[in-house]
Amino acid sequence: MQKIAIQGVRGAFHEAAAKKYAGESIQLVECMTFRDLCKSLKSGQSDMAVMAIENTIAGSLSQNYGLINEYQLSIVGEVYLRIQMQLLALPGVELSAIKFIYSHPVALNQCNFFLDGLSGVQVYESKDTAESARMIREGNLTDTAAIAGETAAQLYSLDILKGNIETNKENYTRFLVLTNQSNQSVEGDKASISFELGHQPGTLADILTVFKKNRINLTNIQSMPLVGKPYEYRFHADLTWESKVDFEKAMESAGEFANSIILLGIYKRSNFNFQ
Amino acid sequence: MQKIAIQGVRGAFHEAAAKKYAGESIQLVECMTFRDLCKSLKSGQSDMAVMAIENTIAGSLSQNYGLINEYQLSIVGEVYLRIQMQLLALPGVELSAIKFIYSHPVALNQCNFFLDGLSGVQVYESKDTAESARMIREGNLTDTAAIAGETAAQLYSLDILKGNIETNKENYTRFLVLTNQSNQSVEGDKASISFELGHQPGTLADILTVFKKNRINLTNIQSMPLVGKPYEYRFHADLTWESKVDFEKAMESAGEFANSIILLGIYKRSNFNFQ
Predict the structure, then answer these.
(1) Mean pLDDT score of chain B
(2) In chain A, what are the domain boundaries?
């Protein structure tokens, strides 16, 4: 059975993303931090890893690109997961009995409209959505609710007190699928690259013009300051194309403008698919 | 006395950034989340706010650009703070007695080289660097250390058991200084802007070429997916210039390519200044 590393515990959104990509018959390796997830893959403890990389509300988890570089991992796929937030409580508990709500800060932020409408309830940040659900079950807490996904409700036998309380219904998280093997030759229509530019003004415009001329579309770009090199930057970009020859030509030309350019992986693009 | 909102509690890096910008004679308004920080400014509870926006290790806190947009705040300045991490414990406690270390996940990540060299110590994530220091003082914990800044050591009378344990010595955090007043006419040499582009390939290349032609330098760029509009993007960018006339011309031309373009503030650029 495939061993897939996820960040966080069973019942969290990373589990749902892993199953969407690889099916139900997988063995999960729970990793407490994103660094641990990379280590698990590098050491052979897991065959594959699923790592959140951007969210419509919280933005980019740009530090994760740094980890992929540092551990020399390859991106082999992506998963988009619609994020729906549920207010979970012990069966039989009513909304009027709830005095405390726990969840991860990003999840709380995604439900701010619902939370602003409550009165007499104290909201607390926790480390994980699923952890908050587990705490209610294990502590038998009848005055506390958690904000988490449906997977957590099933895992800890909690009821959905109020469903789909996320403010924005088109809320999604994009996950990358990683392996420890090189992945440069696979047929695909999307790539993630990383490149460094010096302080010379306008170099980024030059590189993006190369992509434009070769009909390459940019779906994501993030600049990151370079540690130890003030005023120099590393950029992370995701590219899509209709013809792979265009991509290969663009990469060749782009190399002239960048101090270094790394291909993190070529893979098949996925889509939002909000049914 | 000026009331300045900070994220987190007294003793955290936000306090040090606020004092570097506005001096020692300020009144701090502690805000638990970045959203609370914006609310505090909007409601007039505070006159100014200091908000972390990027870090050499953790990358960009891109969700904060979204909050600045949402609450229609203005950027009036920036502060770069060198981040040095200290291992703090009760006076008299030796390193060999430490069984547990607590700190914020980002701070732990910044000290991973030091932590990997320890054995027999369990590392736990907490909500805040200064909170971890306070917990040790209040609980009188003689087997526990916290990773935090020097301000926290002073505030909670803890000793520095091991100094400057951050892996990268050129580690800094950039903070934005915000107000609730409009700030479009001030003389400055740096601006933060936000713009939306449709799905048409190459538009970003066109806009960056406009900046290049007008001698505008780009010091930061982040793309963010637009909530409710799959395949459309909002970009955040920071720009610097030698002549403000160049900037004004560039903004006029850039407007032709973007669906909308917002000026978040013009301010005097700061620098890393690692003494």
Answers:
(1) 89
(2) 2-82+171-179, 86-162, 190-267
